[in-house]
Design goal:
Largest sheet: 7 strands, mixed
CATH topology: Metallo-beta-lactamase, Chain A
Distance between the termini: 5 Å
Number of helices: 7
Number of strands: 14
Shape: globular
Radius of gyration: 18 Å
CATH superfamily: Ribonuclease Z/Hydroxyacylglutathione hydrolase-like
Helix content: 10-25%
Strand order of the largest sheet: 6-5-4-3-2-1-14
CATH architecture: 4-Layer Sandwich
Length: 279
Amino acid sequence: MKVTIWGTRGSVPISGSYYSYFGGNTTCVEIVSSDGIRCVIDAGTGIRDLGTSLLNELPTTMHLFLTHYHWDHCIGFPFFVPAFIPGNTIEIYGQDKGSESAKDILDGRLMCAPNFPVPLAVMGATLNFHRLGERGKIELSKDFTVEYAPLFHPNGVIGLRFTDKGRVFTYLTDIEHTSDSDEDVDAEPLELARDASVLAYDCQYTPDEYQTRVNWGHSTWRAGLNLSIKAAAKQMLMIHHDPAHTDDKVRDMLKDAQDAANGTGVIINAAYEGLSFEV
């Protein structure tokens, strides 16, 4: 499967020369399976550029997985051009929040007055909504499956595990670790990350920054490395960069993580907009 990063930031989008390498758009990741099934993780501001890139490939069908509904993970959806074009089909997966479904939240909270002038009903594509439970597995084809399970984050979030002919890409955004111990990692992220070819992990904070941000819902490269080792993941990709972290700061964090990973067998890199790789 091919993975392309369209948005790398958490919290809010940013711009400026100090953020030009790793990028300023918020979370959006595209996955295309070996048999051509397109999945998208989250609809942060990065989904706008994804939409532009798809205009020469229409009509298209895709599966959009919303890990949760915080602004940085869905604010780009109203600007996703393929959703306005008849003939396209978007299968949208998300958990209910209380009595509200994903459709209720997009229609009644995101794309409604006074927040946005264009309602969901104006979108011309076929939008099919799928309710996700607490955890589960979705078979998109004989060789391509998606598993999901809850992670620790305010208001809830799901982690995702994509398996394509035995190759695994795990995406754990907006996760907060509950222990820094090398011997203690949470069960859900451990199972989602088990034997992953690539584990994308929320590294918004440095270990020092995290001390003043406990219960904010994000993690560190150190906790991600601990999980990678326990799960026998081959590579870890640092994601959900803090909007206050310049390119140089992210590079410093990456070097610290790579130094710590030396000898563990885990390869660590940091996500940047435009990064594309085969899993």
